[in-house]
Write a structure and sequence with these properties.
The protein is mainly alpha-helical. It has one domain. It is rod-shaped and about 25 Å long.
Length: about 30
């Protein structure tokens, strides 16, 4: 991993739960 991607990784880790919720919603549509 690049050092530049660390900040994004930290933010992504926090919003990981939100992403999972969105994935569940999208899956329920199909």
């Amino acid at each position: 991993m690049k050092k530049d991607s660390y900040p994004d990784y930290a933010v992504g880790e926090v919003s990981n739960v939100g992403m999972m919720e969105e994935l569940k919603k999208m899956r329920s549509l199909f």
